[in-house]
Amino acid sequence: MGASAHVGRIGGLAAALGIGVAVGLGCGVASADSTGQGGPTESSSSASSSSSESGTSSPTDSSPGQTTGSATHDAGAPTKIETETSKPVVTVTITKSNRGSHSTPTKSTADPANAAKPTKKSEPAKDDEPAKDHEPTKDREASTTSTATSDEKPTTKEQPPETGSTSAPSTGSATGTIAETPPATPTASPAATHGAVTAVAGDAGTADSQTGGSPAKVPDSPISWAVAAAARKETLVPAVTKTSAVTASTLAAPSALAAATPALVDTTPPVAVIQTPPLAWLQQIPVIGPVFVTPIVAAIHMIPIVGDIIHPFIGYPVQFGAPGAPVPRDVMITSFDGTQIYVHFMPAAGLPAKGVAPTILEGPGLGMPGSTSLEVTPLDGILTDALGAVGVGTLRHAGYNVVTWDPRGEYRSGGQLELDSADYEAKDVSAIISWLATQPEAQLDSPGDPRIGMVGASYGGGIQWTTAATDHRVDAIVPSISWNTLNTSLYKSDAFKSGWGSLLTAALLLTGARPNPEIYPAAIRGLLTGSITEEQQALLADRGPAALLGSVTAPALIIQGTVDTLFPLQEAQDNVAALAPNVPVKVLYFCGGHGLCTNNLFDPTDGQVVTDATLNWLARYVKGQNVSTGPAFEWVDQHGQYYTSNTYPSAAGAPIVASSGQSGVLPLVPLLFGSGPLFGVLPIGATAALNAVNVHIPTVATTTYVVGAPTLTLTYSGTGTSRHVFAQLVDDSTGNVLGNQATPIPVTLDGQTHTLSISMEQVAQTLKPGQTLTLQLVASTANYENFGAFGALTVSGLQVSLPTITDAVAVGAAPASVVA
């Protein structure tokens, strides 16, 4: 392969793997538009409430769309949010009843202006299932005497358990006065699909067809306003170890989650300053602007990463639409500690003037800026195949506003990068959510609480876990190729992933990132010695999200790559096991991730499966539509064949066992004749090795599904400086390593005989009749290179047990028989 081919492949793969390489573009600070020219400004008024002995209150409301006066949001003029102080007082009676009925708030006045901003509701039941089986709830109340039913939003988020003089018995009523508009009359709605752009939102007074009818506004009584302040400290669920498999019935009928301790989430809108690109004025030049400049700006935004880097200077392409229609904009938000976070807001495609829509937050991968491409780009399909995440354009045309941002320590955001820390990056996202709640286009569930979901891959997947665990305003998450702990993924069995360590470090250096000062020394030490210190391990462990997962209540669609050599399949299984038992969860394996699907490069099957699963999940749990999210487990094998299973992990079949009792000697040397690098270019992945101890695995008689973690048992002795050898499975028909996975096996070379049993990295492979595999024990592999590893290993016993599953169903086909 020529040098130019090497360079071209590296560049293409780097883009596909989400490793952004920034060109030297001195990203200067754009000027703030204090006059509001070029976009609306943000101003917020604090909500205050006072209670009297009679139980009345007159809170002020600064949330857009909730005032009774008319407010016009002109895209070309500053938007000022006035505090309404002269709202009519409305008496509300809330009757709490036993399970089987629902509370019905009644108000003495009606205001259609609030109908376009619904509260969260359960979607209508399917014909063959009860309504409660499809309740897209975020927090659930465990009480049997006062529980939200399928026709109302659960009370644990909007109305936490009341104490003191404000509490009411379960069979009594709570009466108070609020200054809010009443709900519209609910109407039936047919089952909806996720792609209806025209149903994003209507003008004030129009029923929202996305949520199964006009929503009921949560009444703001003295009780609810009293607990509104407490609602800033969202409820958490204590960590619970999941002992049972996730099943389709678990997804269909989640039960109430346990009550928990509050999280310190401040919902006060942060300071936000509109950012005006210095070259945006070029698009306003008569004739020249719309004819020449705007098409160039639009073309630049179609280039992944490059368009996002240049965006602060050129802004968005001007899109002509109806007068007053929402426009995309950028703001600099001041986070909790004063750090400036650069945020992009892109309204749903086709959103009319004064319309509202649910919002999706999409975090970027490490080393990448927040995406600013408004439309579907030519490379979106490739990136969906490779990373398992949908783009901004796809989400906007599915009826969602989209918010992206530069994470702290990267590009135009300030601060230092802390690896998706719950104490830093998660609080930044909470600040973004609080700002979003003030935007006129954002559909709200209550003041300060927008209707939101989150998507994103890799670093953009990790931030979803820490945010959802600490801020329960998040309604659903779709973390793609994310991790459980950085220790298990980057330092498995005390072996440093030098291949990915070098790539990620290079990405941070080349993009000018400002990481925690402990990160670079840890990477350098790992690259040179193959190990990191206990303090550095603690830093990785602290970045979780393993310890936080028990606090996640948002329904989670977990997407993981079968060829992901950075965050392999086990990370997804560990995340599922750590979630509270009743959190709705679904798992999807696709042939992609931080790696390459060598048998099926850029096959569209994966991208379509990922896109459909993501949009259906968001439609169900963010829009509240009666949309099927499919079985508990779906996966795409190395041939692009799509399978489903009703359980995760799937029902286990008889394992395939192979062993060798013959003695063999494995010379331990770095680099030479070992596994990898993939294609001779990438310092990741695995290839069949020449220097190896081999065990041939018996041929299968019928189609067999090997899904899960093989178990390896090794008896050995040896001397030398190596601390690890590596195990991998090779497909004899293609010569490819299953999932590109090489598993580090810790060894003690003291001349004594040792026996160990260890789980290898998970695989998801279909074996055709007659197909064979070979287990290889190798001295070195590209993703775990240690240049000081020498010695000799004498193998006296080697056995492997491959897991199979019995309930895999090929889509469109009958269940296949499985034998071992």
TrEMBL record:
Cross-referenced SMART domains: PepX_C (SM00939)
Keywords: Hydrolase
Molecular-function GO terms, alphabetical: carboxylic ester hydrolase activity; dipeptidyl-peptidase activity
Compositionally biased tracts (Low complexity): 40-70, 161-192
Ranges annotated as biased composition (Polar residues): 86-111
Keyword Hydrolase in annotation: yes
Domain Xaa-Pro dipeptidyl-peptidase C-terminal: 615-820
Matching SUPFAM superfamilies: alpha/beta-Hydrolases, Galactose-binding domain-like
Compositionally biased residues, Basic and acidic residues: 120-142, 150-160
Positions of the UniProt region annotated as Disordered: 28-192
Family to which this protein belongs: Belongs to the AB hydrolase superfamily.
Protein name per the record: X-Pro dipeptidyl-peptidase
Source organism: Mycobacterium yunnanensis
